[in-house]
Automatic annotation (TrEMBL), chain A:
One of its GO terms (biological process) is transmembrane transport. PROSITE patterns: ABC_TM1. This is Sugar ABC transporter permease. It holds the Pfam family BPD_transp_1. Keywords: Cell membrane, Membrane, Transmembrane, Transmembrane helix, Transport. The lineage of its organism: Bacteria, Bacillati, Bacillota, Bacilli, Bacillales. InterPro entries: MetI-like, MetI-like_sf. The chain crosses the membrane at residues 12-34, 78-98, 110-132, 138-158, 195-217, 237-262. GO terms for cellular component: plasma membrane. It is found in: Cell membrane. It comes from the Bacteria. PANTHER family: ABC TRANSPORTER PERMEASE PROTEIN MG189-RELATED (PTHR43744:SF12), ABC TRANSPORTER PERMEASE PROTEIN MG189-RELATED-RELATED (PTHR43744). It comes from Jeotgalibacillus proteolyticus. The keyword Ion transport does not apply.
Automatic annotation (TrEMBL), chain B:
Keywords: Cell membrane, Membrane, Transmembrane, Transmembrane helix, Transport. SUPFAM superfamilies: MalF N-terminal region-like, MetI-like. PANTHER family: ABC TRANSPORTER PERMEASE PROTEIN, INNER MEMBRANE ABC TRANSPORTER PERMEASE PROTEIN YCJO. It is found in: Cell membrane. The chain crosses the membrane at residues 15-39, 80-103, 115-135, 165-187, 208-233, 268-290. This is Sugar ABC transporter permease. It comes from the Bacteria. It is a multi-pass membrane protein.
Amino acid sequence: MPSGKAKNNAEKWIATILLVVGGLIVSLPFLWMISSSFKPENEILQMPPTLIAENPTLQNYINLFTNLNFGIYLRNTLIIVLLSFVGLFFNAMAGYGFAKYHFKNKEKVFYLVLATMMIPGQVTMIPVYLLLNEMGLINTMAGIVLPGLAAAFSIFLFRMFMATIPTDLIEAARLDGAGEFYIFFRLIMPISKPIFAVQGILTFIAAWNSFLWPLIIANDESLYTLSVGLSLLKGQYASNFALQMAGAAFMVIPIIIIFSFFQKYIVEGFTTSGLK
Amino acid sequence: MSQLIKGAVRNRHPFIFIAPALIILILFSLIPILIALVISFTDMDLKGLANWSNISFIGFENYINLLSDTVFHKAVYNTFFYVIIGVPLVIIFSLGIALLLNYGKNLIFTVFRAVYFMPAITNIIAIAVVWGFLYNTEYGLFNYLLSLGDIGKVPWLEHPVIAKLSLILLAVWKGIGINMIIFLAALQGIPQSYYEAARIDGAKRWQILFYITIPLLRYAVFFVTVTTLIGWLQFFEEPFIMTRGGPLDGTVSMALFIYQRGFQFSEFGYAAAGSFVLFIVIIIVTLLQFKLRKADTEY
């Protein structure tokens, strides 16, 4: 039916145009952030604003590291990222334990794990603070990282994936005399690369963006993360928008780069997480 | 007895694998619920933090005080304002964009899928900083664009109602991405044969959309509604970083109220009571939805 096809084509064009226009509106804040971050301080307050910096400068980015402590914030953020990969490993171990072992009350324990997903952060925020205070972990890196180390959702996804690994394979390795940890490290982890990739990227993004715990736990600027440092900058340099935009861009651009490389994995990760 | 120990040692592996994550979850998720419940009946504050003997049980006093706290009233009102306007907008926009993205699979569609998804993974503080600049009354891009159309300056963040709407706009922008992906996955899971059958029966495009596509997306819509609602009931970062709850507590949400009471005024007991009220609201709303869904599937 030729007329139907023409109609179909026209519809596709309209869809494309709508998408492009909407996409430009959605990306406007990003574009404005990047363009503004290269403007000198006087140009950014000009009215009407310039679309692209007339005298582009890197001074704002340099100021982040010279006048502000973004170097320290970056270091702390990277430490948190590294430590949260330890958490990822714990989640993988737990997922394997639930997927491939049998023990008493396994399903009940697993439901307990899942139940933690429903607890809103605001309820646990104050008790966790009090607990960490009792443990003497306030104002320490351990205090910032520890509460978020295990995530029920990640355990759930690891379990789902590892349950699909044939048990015969594990049994064969056992018959060959391999120990349980050897099996986990040398057999299970290599097979589970895809789920590690997805979870690894999501862990990186979450750790890079972490804000609330560092804010609550860190009293010292030497423990601030990029997010906390940026919110401090917003308060201290309230009218220096170019500097603010540079700080924001410094946080956002690494994520954009990682995202464009791993788009497929990230989208898949969220899809599996959405449609369990 | 010795056999029991032997058995435990022989079966130790599953426990070794599970223990690290499980201990952390119990310590930082499950036990805190009990602690929150207990301290919500006390007058725990900084003095109590320093020395436990300064803490005393005060029964339901915190909860009774919440009932007459005008800031808490505002927080509850604002939270429902955010939810009632924001959640439908997120669902409509993410479903609409997913339907559009489902039209094709070529490069343009892949690129724009990424563009729409981008805000979802961007740091909320960076977003708040950028939007704070866009919303600036004097130097912001939005007011400049409006001035081109001869519209006067809009006090985006300085008027209690407009500020709420501004925060909703920002949160919708950020919230579209993940839900869009969920809808897109659900759309791609609908078998082509359904559409073909409908076309053979002479169904029009809009009929296919309303009588086949959207009903088949019911599970995805339900999932998105539940998760989005729970998320929006905990609306926190946007007002926290952009308005600090102002002007005149016009943007305080329940979650922000709890944070402010707990960590700015150190009224831990009072904040814990507030957090339990929020928890109960979340549970009620979620149960209500599951109940509505049950009624829905019956016919």
